[in-house]
């Protein structure tokens, strides 16, 4: 008859192979993590990294929009100073030295002097197809770099526009 030896029971003989196997098992358990523990850790890190990436991109986009709004406000002041000095709005951004200025996405700002424009075809319009301004249009084409006259067009939703003769500067989708 075979007997089972236990190391923790007193007055019992202990098989030398059993103690060696038990020591290996305990040592291996103390040495590292199981595969399941590592996979769970990697999954948690992946979820946290994904959330952080989306939040970071949202923060960057919000900062770019704020920067474009600020730049349009500064450009509007320069254009107003030009109007005060010359008695008329400039024909282009080049007249005020702003022709090389780019929006935060790397696209040139768009400007249209409404007083000298031939017809209202190029004038920016709201959802009722009413012109946004009576003096001039100044806007960024936004992240996609594309834009059309009415703000209701999907390609115009990310544009940063100046409307109400400077009373509103912000996202076209918010106007």
What does this entry show, briefly?
With 175 residues, the chain is α+β, with helices and mostly antiparallel strands.
Architecture overview:
- With 175 residues, this protein is of the alpha+beta class.
- The protein has one domain: Glycoprotein, Type 4 Pilin, CATH 3.30.700.
- The chain is 39% helix and 10% strand.
- The protein is built from two helices and four strands.
- The chain has helices at 16-31, 35-86, and strands at residues 110-113, 136-140, 160-163, 168-171.
- Strands 1-2-3-4 form a four-stranded antiparallel sheet, with helices on one face.
- Strand 3 (160-163) and strand 4 form a beta hairpin.
- It is rod-shaped, with a radius of gyration of 34 Å.
- It starts with 15 loop residues before the first helix and ends with a strand.
List the helices and strands and how they pair.
Blueprint: H1 16-31, H2 35-86, E1 110-113, E2 136-140, E3 160-163, E4 168-171
Antiparallel strand pairs: 1-2, 2-3, 3-4
Q: What distinguishing features does this structure have?
A:
175 residues; alpha+beta; Glycoprotein, Type 4 Pilin
Ranges where pLDDT stays below 50 over 5 or more residues in a row are none
N- to C-terminal distance: 91 Å
The helix fraction, in percent, is: 25-40%
What can be said about the biggest beta sheet? 4 strands, antiparallel
The CATH architecture name reads: 2-Layer Sandwich
Supply the helix-strand structural class. alpha+beta
Number of strands: 4
């Amino acid at each position: 008859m075979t007997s089972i030896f236990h190391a923790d029971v007193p007055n019992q003989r202990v098989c030398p192979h059993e103690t060696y196997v038990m020591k290996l098992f305990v040592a291996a358990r103390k040495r590292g993590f199981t595969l399941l523990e590592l996979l769970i850790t990697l999954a948690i890190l992946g979820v946290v990294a994904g959330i952080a990436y989306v939040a970071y991109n949202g923060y960057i986009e919000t900062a770019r929009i704020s920067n474009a709004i600020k730049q349009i406000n500064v450009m509007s002041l320069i254009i107003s100073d030009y109007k005060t000095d010359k008695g008329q709005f400039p024909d282009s951004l080049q007249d005020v030295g702003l022709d090389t200025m780019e929006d935060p996405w790397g696209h040139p700002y768009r400007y249209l002097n409404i007083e000298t424009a031939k017809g209202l075809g190029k004038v920016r319009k709201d959802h009722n197809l009413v012109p946004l301004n009576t003096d001039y249009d100044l806007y960024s084409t936004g992240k996609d770099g594309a834009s059309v006259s009415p703000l209701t067009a999907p390609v115009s939703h990310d544009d940063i526009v100046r409307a109400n003769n400077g009373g509103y500067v912000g996202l076209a989708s918010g106007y």
